[in-house]
Every structure is written in structure tokens, then in C-alpha cells.
Amino acid sequence: MLRAILAALLIALPLSGCGMFRGERDPNPPTQLPRDLSPQVSIQTLWKTRFGQGSETRALALTPALGGGRVYVADARGRVAALGAADGRVQWERQLGLPFSGGPDLAGDLLALGASSGEVLLLAARDGAERWRTRLAGEVLSVPRVIGDLVVVHTTDNSIYGLEVSDGSERWRLTHTPPVLTLHGSASPVAGPDGILVGISGGRLLYLEPEQGAPLWELVITPPSGRSELERIVDINADPVLVGTTAYVAVFNGDLAAVDLVTGTVLWRRQLSSHAGLVTDAEGSTLYISDAEDHLWSADPADGAGRWKQESLRHRRLTGPAIVGNLLVVGDLDGYAHWLARRDGQLLGFERVARSPIGATPVVADGVVFIYARDGTLAALRANPVASGTAARPTTDAGAATTAPDAAGHAAEAARLDLLDPTLVPPPATAPAAVD
């Protein structure tokens, strides 16, 4: 099974340290979408537009950032822009001539971006004016994070930089020797109560104090094992998730684990491989994970025990899950977005958003889901409940943005979405598997 998963990832995710195999057939073709699904949500496209070249079909860490009624987005050809979240209209746009590969991150009036050529930039969010740029030694394939008075960057050579927000100068740098083979990507830094949490190659998790970058603690979640370098790949590509003083982290070819931030002690771990991502609800009462075989899981954060497992999207190269009301939403390799019930994992409906893979985990604000596909398609969607047995009307696959509802309409639709109780919906054909 491990060899099959790794073989599939050689095709789906490039590896650092080796080239792609040309002409290889995917050993794990994606599951076909169910033809007999009776949709239980109607997907409304509020607007859709095309922004630049997207990630040019590559697996980059380009993801929308939301704030102040705007959507901020960058592409791999150096374009960065702010669009109105309500209507998708461009409010400002800049061409900065860099191969952007990570970001943007929004913090107040600051936007941080990283490039595959090693540059990190800080812009003013209000108008896109450049504050500074600096060049690092490694490729940036994660989102640079503005944390306090630092911009913290994780590069693909397993280095972590703390850059001054004021001028981009280097305050500190922490370097680890990378393994021979790693997945092509990096987890982004996460701000903790009194430090900075970073997952790196080799299945290693670090908690750093911000002044000098010294590790408060460091531990290996899953040690490498196996005979070949390919089998020994253990990477933390998904951003860790924090709830209070507990960190949840998923390791590709390794474990899902909970770690006490104060002591650096592993509270529990269970075998579950993931590179796409995980999320927890606002109360910290449930974990949701996309695993390496593209199953979706719900797990108990107290001990990692599975609550449900949805297998109907197997091998569809899912993004990490995002939470919207009582629903989960994920994107896939064919440009579809899928909505599931949080309570029991039922697949409630899907909608094709783009003709290219959706690589970035969807982002959510006020009940609206924003999706950025690798061909540059950027869309704002809303899921509305439909009556039992009523088919959802599909939206057009292409075309200009539509007019968004007014503020009252937004509030009404958000209320309807939050009231959608999956337990009241008749089970569709794609029921989740029971979990031991």
C-alpha cells in the first residue's frame, strides 16, 4: 500500500531531489464521481473571474487571503491584486516580476509573499505599494507569515528565517540538513501563544522563541523507516493547527499527533498519513483531515479516534478541508469543489469550478467559500440547502462574475446555511465508512 501511495505522489506531487517520471501511468486513478447522487445543497456562484496564470498547474503555496472586504491573490508570473470580496472586481493590481510561489499572508495593512527564486516581499495591503524585498538562500514553497514584528519564512532547504517587518533584514536563521528526498513543498509557520510552530522535513516539529529563533523544544513526530530513500520520506507539508496550548500535526507517510506546546510532549499519535491538510472547528471539538489516499476523516482531538471516514473521493487529490457552517468543503484535481456534512461525512453535493486542479485549500468568510484553481480561476461560492429530492441547479462552468446579493441577502443566506442540519437530510448514495 505504501509503495502505491508513493508511486501516485511521484505523479501528483514532484519530489525535491529527483525528477518526474515521464509517461508513467497513475497507479491509483481517481474515483469517478457518483452519477446517482441527489444533491442536498445548491451551489450558488456569486462571482467567478480569471486572475493571471494561477500557479501554472504547479503545486505551489499560492492561496487567497481575506480581510477588510477584499480578496488578495498572487500568481506565478509576478501579479498580485486585491479584489472586492462581494463582486470580484479588481481594486488594485501590481506586476512585480517575480515567480510567486507562497502567499499572500495578510496581517493588518501588510501582505507577505514568497517566490520560488528565494525573494520575500512585504507590500501595503491598501494599495500594493512595495515596502521591501529580500532574497533568501532557498526556494519559498510555503506562506511567509507576519508574526508580531517578524516575517517568518520556511524554505525548501529546511531553513527557517526571522525577518524584521520594518526592513526585511535577517534577525535570525535556523537551518536543518534536509533529507535526500522530500515532498515538493513546505509547511507554513504558525503563531503560538509564546512562540512560532514550524513543521519541517524528516517529520520534525519545532517550537521557536521569536527573539532569537532558538528552539523552545524540538521533536520527531514520525521517524523515517524503510529500506529505500523513497520509503523513508516523512514530511510535514500540512500546516499544524493550534487549539489553546495543543498543536495537531499530520505527517506524510507517518502519523497524526497531538503535542503539548508547553512541554513539547506528544499527547497521542495514530497512524494516518497526510500532506494536504487538517482543520479543527472553532470549539476545538473535532478534527477534519484529508489523508494521503484522499479519504476524509473526522477525529476526536482528545485521542485521535476516528468518528467517520468518507472514501467516495479516493485518489481525487483533495485539498485540505475548510469549514463553512455545518459543512466541509474540499477541492480536487479536476476542478470540482465538494460539500460534505460535518456531522457524519455525507457527500451533499459538488460543483465544477475550474478546468484545472484546485491546489489551495478553500478559504471561508461569512459563509462564502473562495476557491483559487491552478489555472487562475478565482471564484466565490455559497451553498444553500435544497428540499429533499430536489436536484441542485448547476451553475455555468465559465463566464463573467455575477452580481452578488446585497448585505441583507448575505445575512439571510448565511443564516440558512448555519441552520442546515445534516441529520435532517436523507442519506445520499455515498455514505461514509464506519470507523473502528
Describe this structure in words.
This protein has helices at residues 2-12, 407-419, and strands at 15-16, 41-50, 61-62, 65-67, 70-74, 79-84, 90-95, 100-107, 110-115, 119-124, 130-135, 145-147, 150-154, 159-164, 170-175, 182-183, 190-191, 196-200, 204-208, 215-220, 241-243, 246-250, 255-260, 266-271, 277-280, 287-290, 296-299, 306-310, 322-324, 327-331, 336-341, 347-352, 363-365, 368-372, 377-385. The protein has a domain at 60-159: Lipocalin (Beta Barrel), CATH 2.40.128.630. It has 436 residues and is mainly β. A hairpin with a 6-residue loop joins strand 25 (277-280) and strand 26. It is globular and about 55 Å long. Mean pLDDT is 85; it is low at 1-23 and 389-429. Strands 3-8-9-10-11 form a five-stranded mixed sheet, with no helix packed on it. A four-stranded antiparallel sheet has the order 2-35-34-33, covered by helices on one side. The protein has a four-stranded antiparallel sheet with strand order 4-5-6-7, with no helix packed on it.
Please name the defining characteristics of this protein.
single chain, 436 residues, mainly beta, Lipocalin, five-stranded mixed beta sheet, four-stranded antiparallel beta sheet, 2 helices, 35 strands
